[in-house]
Amino acid sequence: MNNIDEVLVSLRRVIRATDLHSKYLAKTSGLTAPQILLLQTIRDKGQTTIGDLANQISLSQATVTTILDRLEKRALVYRERSEQDKRKVHAYLTDVGIETLKAAPMPLQEHFTRQFNDLQNWEQTMIIASLQRVAQMMDAQHIDASPVLDIGAIDRQGSTTESAELFLNSEQS
After folding, report:
1. 68 and 50 in contact (C-beta within 8 Å)?
2. Which of 85, 87, 100, 104 could form a disulfide with 29 if both were Cys (CB 3.0 to 4.6 A apart)?
3. For residue range 52-103, what is the model confidence (pLDDT) as tens digits?
């Protein structure tokens, strides 16, 4: 296999691993990676505003609001206006949200983060530089992206049935 093929195979493996893990999350928890990340952030931050959540997970406030709408419909979160400043809205986990989060698998980026942090600084810098160069070579350097390893629209609905079927079908092929 030549060098170009090696690079393309490695890229395909990254894309495929992300896709399979996204389907696994949806199948086992009914949640997308961004939804799990948002639930974790609400849990970890305690009382925090929607804007602070958006900044924390590097998504737009509109995207976070859309994700919260979906999580609220499933009774995983609720929102309340601040007593001190009525312009601010805070998000909180419900008891169902806490239990759902406990049972949810770890998002792929958490696994990656643990291993990446174990690398020496020079190795981390090489990986960053290489991936930035690959993105540039694919004319993707200007594409807006958040640090969430997931396939599809960030604010999409996590469908257990549809994603489980996709996951099972991909496993059979």
Report:
1. yes
2. 104
3. 999 888 888 998 999 999 999 999 999 988 788 888 888 999 999 999 999 9
Residue 170 pLDDT exceeds 90 = no
Say how many domains are in the chain.
Answer: 1
Domain that holds residue 74: 3-167
Q: What is the pLDDT of residue 128?
A: 94
Residue 173 within a domain: no
- Domain presence at residue 172: no
Distances from the Cα of 9 to the Cα of 5, 14, 122, 126, 129, angstroms: 6, 9, 24, 19, 19
